[in-house]
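Agenda item 2: nicotinamide-adenine-dinucleotide complex prediction
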Amino acid sequence: MHISVIGTGYVGLVTGACFAEFGVNVTCMDNDAKRIARLEKGDVPFYEPGITELVAKGLKENRLSFTTDIAKAVDKALVIFIAVGTPPKEDGSADLSFVEEVGRGIARYMTGYKVIVTKSTVPVGTGEAIRAVIKKTQQEPIRFDIVSNPEFLREGSAIEDFMRPNRVVIGADSDQAVAIMKDLYRPLYLIETPFVVTDVPTAELIKYASNAFLATKISFINEIANLCEKVGANVQMVAKGMGLDHRIGSKFLHAGPGFGGSCFPKDLAALIQTGERNGLPMQIASAASRVNQNQLRQMVKKIREATGDVAGKTLAMLGLSFKPNTNDLREAPALALGQELLAAGAAVRVYDPAALEEACRALPKLQACRDAYHAAEGADALIIVTEWNQFRNLDFERLKSVMRRPLLLDLRNVYDPQRVAAAGFRHVSVGRPPLD
Ligand code: NAD
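Presented output:
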């Protein structure tokens, strides 16, 4: 089978490279010529564990190719995945202009039956809108089917998530399209991946409902963490006690600076918009979003209280990407925190294993450092914002010898407070009672 993937960002490239690994012939198309030129040489423009090797293999074995030409991408493919961005508009609704542009492109060049699949996260009703765009643009009526196949991969473990998903959702209203999609995903059938086959609007909503639910879990535990701080309870034990209940589960119950990334904030906003448009306020999603915005303010307050006043202080921030194992800075809490701290008059030294250069381009006043210890030099506080593994076992003696004051703000609750105190540090974390 020959397929195409339009849009070679995190989702598109992982989708293309993984299907090539499954033995499918894949053409990846993007309108960013620089990106395609790099990819043709096997140079992946973002950090994601394992993707460079997978792209190299696909290229070498001639199952993966790249183009900027949509005609080429449409021509050979039976299945065309749309994996372009759907960024938020000012009112929170999803900007579908890229998706629609791709729809028009497909319509212009298709000469036979196609299965057109949205991988991008798109609001309920978009499948129908794409169908309308294609029909309107087609010169002559050529048959096609629309499928919604939302993607649930997580950056940082994207390949594993794609190859071993918890489930595959296929929304379609044609048996032929469902059969083709199942054939494409056959390798996952062999490992007994559950398939949810449904209609297009339901599939579209499954994605938003899933992300909103996960975001709600994070906001919920963050709110509980703030209450723990008031009443002297320990949020980690609360989360453990909750999570052992199988009806609740332990995932996404880690208190911290709040969620960021390219998905949760924007998908919550889009779901809230969909609710508004349908006269049904999404009250829980709205609360999750508000709590998340407040959580960042809580972190700034925490840093201010621990350091006295941040003006004139030197602060070292470890971890800038929105989560470990990615260089993605979209809606990263670290950038918002950095901005606040710089505006309040602090000097901010930063280190991140993958997102350093880009973060310093976004906020040029950040001082880029070589590693955690370099960042800590002369610092009044060390702040762990993103829990990369390399920050989980820091040498506190070495840190103490270079810092102005031994203060650790552990915004991800990475460290055991006793251990940090024993190393002579003051330790401030999230939702856990201080030792002093
Ligand atoms: P991205 O910004 O990394 O990539 C989008 C790509 O689309 C870019 O390379 C861009 O140049 C290209 N593009 C834009 N318009 C185009 C056009 N007209 N023709 C060809 N290419 C075009 O985005 P992403 O993070 O991969 O997300 C893509 C979609 O998948 C979004 O809807 C997102 O919500 C969803 N999603 C993302 C994740 C994630 O973890 N990043 C997970 C699940 C779903």
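Discussion summary: The chain has two domains: 2-198, 199-436.
Owner for follow-up: CH.
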